[in-house]
Design a protein that fits this description.
- Helices cover 80% and strands 0% of the residues.
- It is mainly alpha-helical.
- Helix 2 (33-59) runs parallel beside helix 4 (100-111), helix 2 (33-59) packs antiparallel against helix 5 and helix 5 (116-143) packs antiparallel against helix 6.
- The chain is elongated.
């Protein structure tokens, strides 16, 4: 192959590589306001679940509450680790603590003495929190724009649903009538 022909092939390959790389960069959708909001809200929900899960392990008197608390800490820690990586990749700044409503719930639980009252309140609070998380996560799947954020929501939803189902199953044992 002559020098000119080799140069042409090299330049053509370089052009294809540059165009392909630019096309891939342009194909990556920047997170929308919906995507950013979900990432932040999901992170705060994870922080709240980890904190209240630890509280359930410490203050719960029922083996069910203690076991669910442990499961929630494990699962929400894994979910949050993935979410923090995603947020870093997308340059989304995450808060360092749960939102005001979540902190108020944690304070209520903290103020409640260990025993049946704590267990019942924890189950009620967890049902409400997981129902909210399911709704927000499904909304992200339906309305989100960035594929990687939608994928994170799709991975989180079965875990959140499984937690909610476990809470629904346990609720009657604590005198809690679940709404859904």
């Amino acid at each position: 192959m002559g020098l000119c022909k080799r140069m042409f092939v090299l330049l053509a390959a370089l052009a294809v590589t540059m165009v392909g790389g630019a096309g891939a960069a342009m194909a990556a959708v920047q997170p929308s306001e919906q995507d950013n909001s979900w990432i932040v809200a999901a992170h705060q929900a994870n922080l709240a679940e980890i904190a209240t899960g630890k509280m359930a392990q410490d203050k719960g008197t029922s083996a069910v509450v203690k076991d669910l608390g442990e499961r929630f800490v494990t699962d929400h820690t894994k979910l949050d680790d993935s979410l923090k990586t995603l947020a870093g990749d997308l340059n989304v700044t995450l808060p360092t603590e749960p939102n005001a409503e979540q902190k108020a719930v944690a304070q209520q639980l903290s103020d409640t003495a260990a025993g049946a009252d704590f267990d019942k309140m924890w189950i009620e609070q967890q049902l409400a929190a997981h129902a909210k998380s399911m709704t927000a996560t499904q909304q992200q799947i339906d309305k989100g724009e960035a594929a990687q954020v939608k994928q994170a929501a799709e991975q989180a939803l079965p875990i959140i649903k499984a937690h909610h189902e476990a809470l629904m199953k346990a609720a009657p044992n604590f005198g809690v009538q679940p709404n859904q």
